[in-house]
User: What shape does this take?
Amino acid sequence: MTSLETQVLIIGGGITGTGIARDLSLRGISCIVVEKKDINAGASGSNHGLLHSGARYVSNDPGTATECMEESRILKQVAPQCIEDTGGFFVAVKGDDESYIADFPALCAAAGIEVSPVDIRDAVETEPALSGNIIAAYETTDAVVDPFKLSLENIFHAVQLGAILMCFTRVTGFTIFNNRIQSVHLLNTQNGETHIVKTDHVVNAAGAWAGETARYAGINLPMVYSKGTLLITCHRITQRVINRLRRPADGDILTPGGTVSIAGTTSVPTHDLGSLHPTSEEVDLIIREASVMLPELKNSTFIRAFSGIRPLTGSPENDEGRAISRGYVLLDHARDGIENFVTITGGKLTTYRLMAEKTADLVCSRMNISSSCQTQTLQLPAHDACRWSEPGLSPRYWLKTRKPGDLLLCECEMVPISAIDCILESMKHHAVPPGLRSLGIRSRIGKGPCQGAYCSIRTIAYLYDKGMLKGDQGLVEMIAFLRERWKGMQPVLWGERLMHAELQEAIHCGLFETELQK
Amino acid sequence: MKKTANPAATSHPDTNTYDLAVIGTGMAGMAASLIAADRGLSVAQAGLTGEILFSSGFFDFLAIHPVREKRYWTNPWEAVHAMIQDHPDHPYARISGQTMRHTWDVMLSFLEREGLPYHRELEENTRMITSQGTVKSTYCLPLTMQPGADGLKQNLPCLIADFHGMREFSAVQIAESLRSQWKGIRTLRIHFPGTDGLTELYPERMARALELPTNREKLAVLVKPHAKEVKLVGLPAVLGIEKSLQVTNDLSERLGLPVFEIPTIPPSVPGIRLKETFERALPQIGVRQFLQMRVLRVNPEPDGLFRLDIGSVSPEYIIKARAVILATGRFFGGGLYAERDGIRETVMGLKVVQPATRSEWHRDDFFDPAGHPIHHAGLETDSLFRPLAASGRPAYPNLFAAGSILAHQDWIRSKSGVGLAVCSAAAAVESCIYLKGVNK
Assistant: This one.
């Protein structure tokens, strides 16, 4: 057991936790981020990557709409390396609610969101994938953001400023005395080591697991979970973000992301945080709904589907996911009798910076530290090891540098050994053990059309050669990787994808007998 | 120079009439052509020859049953017996033991004759290592791999060598992963003769390079100093293409130790060897092959014969056949195709038995011990391997199916791919001959 000390301990390594770590570090406050899995393991890593203009929320959540508008403007300034400023279209098709279409410009104006009407012919000409049945179109400032890169850049900057990141480390309890959390007990799930961290303040940024975390302090935090499923296409279908011009519903957004597009979402109340499987039914629902705007989705091939949990705070009686505000909630648990404990939950990827700012403000005021937030204007520094999650970067880099011996480990996404070396080096400093899943978060390994069939084998061979895997660790890694990938592939298996899946099983089970190894 | 068994493309239709047309060029199609030609039938065969490249080189018969219990059978014949008892609808239940035994003999003696000898224990599955450092059970394995199986069984001191630039093969990985089952494996990484280790190595090119004695000599010089205290040497399966046994034996002589090949991830060299062997030998025994071509249409004619349009995009050849064996494989082979709302058979639109909805095709866990229900989908046949129509009667009196396209089996999980392919092909040929006799 080791003892550590810090001013603030942050629970959760998603975008909120990493954002808070950077904000506090910039204020000169020491902090430790503990994450029970890896960066963006929850909702931060399973979303559209949509940087909202705010227009989606003008009717049912104008407060969030305005926040999104302001925050997306700031992020485009301070974190341009994480953003593709695509712009967006809101389109309505025949049969959509005409009164909503008519009210839309005024609602946007009231929230301070810029939209401009687009001639339907121009809209279809600039985005040829749009349906011929469009009856209205507006241009918006929606954009896309790479959530992995964003969280990684935040935590890298924080670590550079002195913060500590502890991945694969979970909270096992609090020592509470005199209405204060005196120390937090931690367990490293990889090596079994335990730590006790003495801390002045604890921030609960555990996302969907915020309720579970609050319970360690004896606090009951009612949470509502909404499962959302998304679909990744093999090709990029539009240049812009496309939103259906109607009240938020299923299958009404298509975001581009590098070489692919992501269609979604669904919203289903759920209670089970354990295993999140996208289903065939959800996939069919998204295709049916989204193809109304974009007919080619009916015949598209999909790389995979994925599901995330939206942690919404609200009364459990109101179980309807889409009716609950997407605004964030910042709770000072002094009201529950714990003076140095706050929870930040809900909110959007787009508003993470604001959430971090407000949380840091509260923590500072509780600690009687006067300091001001710098993240509104200070550039988010770009770190070398954070760039590999960007689609299309590896091929450009590899073709440009073309160093002898820098072999490609992934041929679909062209990820060379040098990129993997760079990432492995950075993982060492974040207590992340080398493995396929952790490399997958930080690079394009396993994300191409072969979904890891070949790059997983090459990467594991490489890790053995470097002495980073021993004994049967590679097999354990491979099994976990294939299981995780399967969740996303399984509901989109038909046509060509199913052929690949059959080959994958023939190789891993037929030839290697992976499923039978002891 | 590339040899091709295909006649030059011609616009003249081939109007020959054959006793049998085999559609498919995987193991089932190759076996059907071989066995039918052997039995004196005139045979035409067509297909895209891609899938056999994905063969690992191993010939599985049956090793796991029931799949759900992961029960391993040392004796594949006992496993087959148990399978038939438990699953009377499994294709093996429609093949006599005599046919199975005879088929294996025919296949293995053919391959031996053609310079690609296999090893098998008549009544036993053999356990052999793979490039992932896992252990796999199979019935027959290339003779060039066999010493490795002995080494594993006897825990012999072994050296495994790999090459700079061969990204899918790590000797260290194999040694580490096998640590608990095969102790004392040493590893060695060397430059493949004539390469600098800075670029990717491709197994097929390596295999062709090792057909030259000078490259083998260079390789032996690199390995020998490290092989002093071991009893055998393992290398990735790249030891020659046409002359793999000579290449392996020659390396053994130079090193003074048995050398064996370790199978690599497909598409791999042992698959290329099988493809080239069949493509070379089948035309020599009279099989008319139409390779790299699809059968675009199969039409039953009023005279009871089938008319087949064969070509890449549009028909280049038209032939007639008294019987057809469909050995087109499953999804990867192209015999079945999965639409979003159902599975169809691609050549003739035959009835495919399948789960009711797509959500039942696969299980949530990739490694679910029960396997995925979609693998049991396929063509249901009568006892003569004739696919059944919706009525429950054979779709055509002279149409047969063989290999992985057959329903009610899971060749991947039960480790029965080649056995199912060749035995059902043999049974389909037998039925075809039987019916020909009956109808005469």
Q: What stands out?
A: Chain B is about 30% helix and 20% strand. Residues 1-12 of chain B have pLDDT under 50 and may be disordered. Chain B touches chain A through 59 residues (CB under 8 Å). The radius of gyration of chain B is 23 Å.
